[in-house]
User: Fold these one by one.
Assistant:
Number 1:
Amino acid sequence: MNKPCGSEMILDIHSCDINTMSRESLENFFVELCKVIDMERTELHIWEYLEDNNKDPEEFQHLKGLSAVQFIKTSSIVVHTFDNLNKVSINLFSCKDFNPKEAQTFCVDYFKGECIQAVNITRY
């Protein structure tokens, strides 16, 4: 049987405080989360989804927000904000063990929201 190579935590957080979804706040989020899960940060990339003239304005309203990838020594943390919906989606994958309950609690508290879905899976 194949041995596990890591674990992934997938979170959907709703009713977030819009002030927690800025570029500056996301940068701080990654610093603090990496302290909580004892991971070493490497490169951080943040993109802002700007209005696209080729898309319907209603579709843009759903997608407006930031997407960020924080690379860590053992994999990555990805966050997508949906500003007009006050939602955040998070994926945390690492080959190094971490406590998913502790990470989940930190994320929900940081974004001041409500966890709608939390899934933890073992990756092979």
Number 2:
Amino acid sequence: MRLLVLGGTLFLGRHVAEAALERGHELTLFTRGRTNPDLYPEAEHLVGDRDGDLSALEGREWDAVVDPSAYVPRVASASADLLSGSVGHYTFISSISAYRDFERTGIDEDYPVGELPADHGEDVNAYYGQLKAACERAVTESFEGPVNVVRAGLIVGPYDWTNRFGWWIRRVAAGGEVLIPDAQPWDQQVIDGRDLARWVLDQAECGAGGTFNTTGPEDPLEMREVLETARAVSGSDATFVLVSEGFLLEQGVEPYEELPLWVAVSANPAYAGFDAVDVSRAVASGLRYRALRETVADTLAWERERAGAPDKDWGPSALASGLDPDRERELIAAWREREPSR
């Protein structure tokens, strides 16, 4: 298969590129030539810009394209329109954030998506989910052929520069007392980027179209299991100190920022379904998940690699901090002062 990836040198696109080369596909990467430009010398590299210079794609043909790098509809539409008629299959990587809300669990692909306000502009930080939903519409309206809309959840594993899942793995591996929100329950939906990339290629190879929630795993995954697996894999002496969500919020701890992956559902019921979307359609189409231990072990190895080479281009927010160590110790001490029995 002749495959075009719009990107392919950072995270999910990189996994797609690696999987495509492993399968013997003829790979073309379209990038700005800035991030990891020396990767995959066996692939064809085209240089341009999603936002304004697609000339390198003109007059070319591919069997399929994977687009993991469009965040505003204008940009998504430009590539889909240009490639329509010269590419057989289009995969657009969207997000579960495209949904209108997460007020209930079990959201499937027919649930309403978010709508942009009239004066939205292109502020991705402010309107990420709504813009992704608009990108979905832009691609499906511009591209004549099967389109696979992939509403991904939290993608984890090697190459994950976001410092969310990986922060917890590093923190547990460092050992000592680890502050854990006492959330009941604290389930997670995550997918290893390699599993998602494999499924994306499977879909492209068979020309399948449709819209799919692609997070996981299929059964609930408790965050405590993730942390205990990290402790076992790293061999650390970490001990977990459970601190109530109410106390953390009183202390001004920012959900998802200072403590990644914690959404504090007890205080924010609008997020009840954030880590509980329905993935049955993707599973029925062949999406499979590797063992959690493998993902954790490979994440830890990659986190240690990038920590040992801080000058390398690891992504936009490489090794950004989660909860400051001094702040963590202060919070644990304050919690024990309030709740001596804990």
Number 3:
Amino acid sequence: MNKLIKQILILIILIIILILPYFVFAQDVEPIEKLKKVGTLGGYAAYTDETTFSYIVGQIIRAFLALLGVIFISLMVYAGYLWMTARGNEDQLTKAKTTIRVAIIGLIIVVSAFGIWEFVSKFVL
């Protein structure tokens, strides 16, 4: 009986979690012009065809971060392959661990640099 009550409670909680988002959209988002106006504050115009310096720099940084993400994933796959095929070879295992450690440190540095860039760019651009 106790197990049945737990299952019913879990089912009720899941139903509430799945149905609750439908009630969040009670207000209609009609004034799209107001949203466009908000986007132009601070020198950023999201709904224009105009290419600004900050937009170009942002696109370059996004492309560079995407490339670094691909390099990070490639290094992790390579290190995982080394680890799986080590077969007791301590040198290969050490190389795999070092590669994983260096890749994670590099990712932390890149994400930190991006965070600093975002913080500084709000005041400079």
Number 4:
Amino acid sequence: MEFASGGELTEYISTKGKLCEEEAKIIFKQILSAVKHCHQHSIVHRDLKLENILFATPNSNEIKVD
């Protein structure tokens, strides 16, 4: 498992409030890409929720799905 020091998406949204469209688009695209990668390898993430979406580093839009 990789270390993701940026915190959870839940914390980010509760601190910042709602995301602007551009930021949401970047994050959502990465989530879809991660799910697609899992499905291509016959993996189903059965617990996909905000708490399981982590930022790779603080002040970054790069996400990791836990």
